[in-house]
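User: Hello, can you help with two protein structures?

Assistant: Certainly.
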Amino acid sequence: MTSSFEALLPSTERALLHRVAVAQAEGRAPSLVGAVARDGRTVWSGSRSCVDGHAPDDDTQYRIGSITKVFTAVLVMRLRDEGLLDLADPLEKHLPETGVGEVTVAQLLGHGAGLAAESPAPWWERTPGTERPTLGDVLGDKPLLHPSGRGHHYSNPGYTLLGSLVEAVRGVSWEEALRTEILEPLGLTRTTAQPVAPHAGGWAVHPWADVMLPEPAQDLGLMAPAGQLWSTAADLCRFAVFLAEGDDRVLGAASVAEMRTPAVPPAAGDWEGGYGLGVQLLRRDGRTYIGHTGSLPGFVACLWVSVEDGVAAVALANATSGPMVGTVAADLVRIVAEAEPRIPEPWRPLPEVDQELLALTGPWYWGTYAYGLRLERDGGVTLEPLRGAGRRARFRALPGGGWVGLNGYYAGETLRAVRRGDGSVSHLDLGSFVFTREPYEPGDAVPGGVDEEGWRGL
């Protein structure tokens, strides 16, 4: 018996609306819209507004600020996947004469290049991009503040460089590459570089009085790849699904997963957060979120995805400060994940099995440490300790035999079955570690050999 749970329960929907309403009221935002996607589709949206009868919906554009950086990172990863650049390439190889050409593409993606956080004055978010017509104007006289590759230091100019890198390698403008390579394939018709009605106006709310002031909406010029875009809750939910699952028309699942992997060590004392290749990483209440926050004068925005739960959420508000949209979006994910936890697919046996592979499953010993080798449905294997703490890892099958580690200590390491002359399996070799069927069995391929007297009591 199967059941459909596409729609949220009324109690869950009320809890979501309550969270949005509290955020708009306590954050004193002119308007706030939230939306939730689950298992690949938007399942809820709701909003609150200070103007009766004019509440926004999930098709109303807001400026999304630094969420733009995720789009720019996807464009760069596409160039990598096409073989047009390597993440280890120095910037100089593709974009010469910047003055910071020794930093690598990967360092720029993960904010590990050591670049300054902002461009020189005047503040780029409230002034037109025409005031910074060249990369030299964006970078200033002292663009590098920290040693490259040593740690995380968020940099808006770094993403200006990545946008210019895309233009140099692709031969089209950043905006054109964005439109043809991401927005059109994913159907993000309401994500644009300039506002398209219906869109919210940006406001500053006085910190000590309930009054407002309109904020300017500047074209950021060269800084656009760091924060230019406008989008809607509906479009961002679709983009969130892409960040969780990938899409071969844009970027495959493996490359999207690579973006979600920490790229540089987090700042000291910030062990609950991190940064991948263009995406922020957050660990809160036992749940891992990936996505990005964003802000520009008049707007704050956040997109979070819990890949494990299959739930994503977006929160957008048109206020310079006040509503804590990062917390709101995380709470929207949590509400759905806890009220309606994901129902697993029913267990089914494999349609067929390789008998030689099946014979490798079961207990193996690294010295006296007991491990179990389990066959996975995709042809890979999992090696995990049978008790206590240890190095658990998943492995993907290699075309020529053996497996490559996907996570943890054994990521990138090769696991293979070593056979005797008669074809029987002698042991498993994992990056020179020997796993045998018995602990220190005489005659087995144990490095250093086994004491001739064998096991003994006191």
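That covers the first. Now for the second protein you mentioned:
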Amino acid sequence: MVVGADFLQLDPGAVPRGSLTSWLVDALRAAIADGRLAVGTRLPASRVLAADLAVSRGVVVAAYQVLFDEGLIRADGARGTTVAAAPPRAEVLPADRADPWAGIDLSPGVPDLSAFPRAAWLRAERAVLTSAAAADLGYGDPRGNAVLRHELAGWLGRVRGVRAGAEDLVVVAGVAQGLGLLAQLLAGARVGIEDPGSRGTREQLAYWGVEPVPVPVDADGLDVEALARSGVPVVLVTPAHHFPTGVVLAPHRRRALLEWAAGGGLVVEDDYDAEHRYDRAPVSALQGLAPDRVVHTGSVSKSLAPGLRLGWLVAPRVLQPELARRKRMTDLGNAALPQLVLAQLIASGELERHLRRVRPRQRARRDAMLDALRRHLPDARVQGVAAGLHLLVTFPPGADDRELAERARDAGVLVQPLSWHRVGDGPPGLVLGYAAHSPDRIRDAVARLGASMRRPSGARQPVVPKRSTDRER
């Protein structure tokens, strides 16, 4: 059967099924950028375009949602969906550039890579290479090395209250792969996501054919009553430290969420930076309270380095066989040596000692950013608890946070607008990471940020960026 559409000569014939949404987003974004779709142009109805392309309507709806989130299209009353604007300059928030950024990168979620415990890692690697059997370097169990899964189960139980044995864990290449494996199981389903919430997570779910359904977040975290009204069977949350607002899911909301799950719902708990709490011990993981209704996922991306690509997935036992099968079919399992080294770091106590060294440094950097914000952006409101690797600052209504991010970029500071991570309406804001820079450099960045916002709109100081990072998992 010949498929395709006269509209933009779109032809999905050679596109893998799991990539249809991202393919369509890229095609439409490119057409808007190069002028083939001018501002005001009406887009085909999702049902019509899906029929022309012989794809599910969910693919088109998800693609339109991404472009709507980016501000490129809008619902225009009786005219339907129309082009609203050309794409913002790519330098503001590129997610996958390879060149180094020339200014100060305050992207959220970037850890202090200079603090990576190289000496401890080297000692652990030598110990592993001395003691490892030949079979340890073979293909092994696709769920992960048994020694690492044993150590992780104990570690997660001690520090996060997770109730799991080694047999309940799957070692994954970061939270991103864990969510990808889950999304494959949920393909075609509607999944609740926090709004605001991680844009990268939202796009990843859509990429795998899951329909993200925004659920509001307020000062107490996820609105569980709104979740119940949405009718979704699954929800993804960041309860220990919400991204990007920084709030902790309030006790009454935790109870309500677990009651919702007990009624048949499934909670996916992204524990992305719970190890970084500076004023008190972090709240325990939801999984420990309902292991048969909560999927728990985390990684060492924020505690050690994202380049290690090491994370874990703890799922209810009914889901474990299929997750293990999909992990095997994806990559036959993570690299053996880094798994053994991480197991050694946990068993020797080096990982805990590393975290104890890093936390005071991060607290000092957070304090430096707070002081600088009070001095240079006195009208900004800082949100969230003393935790994590980023701050959210919001501004009075009327500001355009994308324009603020563009001005900051021109001043040599890379930040993310809050609207990037929101589907619905809300106050303008900026998401600022502080973990990767010294206090002095943070103060310099915030001073530039404040000056850029006081500068008239037409006064620009171009700075060519060479690299940016988004919140990766």
